[in-house]
Amino acid sequence: MTLLGCLLTATPLLVGCAESVDGPSLVLTVVTPDEPEDPSGPAVQYFINEVHRLSSGTIRIDPVWDLTPEGVEDWDQVVGESVADGTYDLGLVPSRAWDVLGVNSLRALNTPFLISSDAAMRAVLRSDLRDELMADLPAAGVVGLDLWPGDMRRLFGYEEPLLRPADLADQKIRSPTSRTVTAYLEAMGAHVVQTERSPLNQRGLESGFDGAGTVILATGNAVMFPKVESLVANGDLRSRLQPAQWQILLDAASATRREQLQSFPDDEEWARDFCARGGEIVAASPADLAAFKGVGQQIRGDLEQDPETARLIDEVEAVVAAVPEPESLSGCPVDESGSAAPADDDTKALDGIYVTRVTRQDMAEAGATDPDVIRESTGRITWTLENGSWHHVVEADHYLSDSEQEGLYTYEDRSVTFFWGPDEVITGKVEIGEDGSLRFRDLRDNIPELQEPTEAFFGQPWRKIGDLSD
């Protein structure tokens, strides 16, 4: 008989025992609120494969994906409790969730602006602090196996960015349930909700680039904390396993952490993908960023009332202090190729796919007053320009007319003319940025009553997100 296959004849976890093992002798479940295609999916699958490899196929891990679909609130806590009560053997739960379930040691990871860069997060996860950070997990009925990297968390606004603490006052902000994170957002006056994303009844959300969606603006230089994933086991699982089996789980979890630290996309990669999908990144001013950090210091002070939490915060800070501070994101990353500006001597020079955003405030500042025209001219607009033909798609919940329109344009010697329907003609000058973006000026609409809406509609920068071959 093999060590892994037959030493646990009394455990209900064993599904078979024989001299020749044709299949797994131990089957465990790992549960997650995410789906396989979510950022944590590859880590879960790597762990499953590593357990299979290290155990020579005698231990199988069956994943349970998407335990808490859209509409379920407190989804992280539901997953954690399902592991604690023995419904599942293992679970992947973000560190932010455990403070609601009585765990204090992980709160250092979500202390606002303590870990505010991808490099700092990775340094902490490579350090010897992991066991200390997971030390309180038994208070919630689970045991920590390891900590894996996740994405950095920022504020995202719908129609307008969240650039200063006052922008959150009396506003609904979507954020997963966490005492620490909620305390920070509420300190700025926000009403924290866990309902589905909706620009109709929410001002914005706290999220990473991957989960934020696209019709949205990120405050790029205000990184509040990282999302760190904790792999946990039911509190009684270790006593039901042989030491060699438990060690395989630990070794597989550790191997997954090391692999994820190498392969998990860094912050700039997530930002590039976000921008390629049409998202926009803006920056808080130095004064506003300092204000965000000032509120964070208040929350840190509250956390440090607990001596053990204060000690862990200090130890994390010591690790972070040794990491060079990277340049913050104040806009979408420039393409590595340098994004040379196209030639500007013919219509084809403008060929490409662009995204722009027009808000009600833009319309008001341009002097537009007609509510129907404002409604029909605001939202996120994706433009396709191809050799004299234009096509645009407007995305906005309030849009009433055809969301797609098309027509013709000409471009010569930095002058552009858009032919809008049978009667309207819009002219102007266009500047092509080094990254391919377009800016229009000296706009003129041949229909005088539409001059102000036209200035707002074409007055916002068009960011190039792709070539026609993409």
From TrEMBL:
Signal peptide: none annotated. Transmembrane segments: none annotated. Residues 327-346 are annotated as: Disordered. Gene3D superfamilies: Bacterial extracellular solute-binding protein, family 7. It comes from the Bacteria. InterPro entries: DctP_fam, TRAP_DctP_sf. The keyword Transferase does not apply. Pfam families: DctP. Keywords: Signal, Transport. Coiled coil: none annotated. Belongs to the bacterial solute-binding protein 7 family. This is TRAP-type C4-dicarboxylate transport system, substrate-binding protein. It comes from Nocardioides pini.
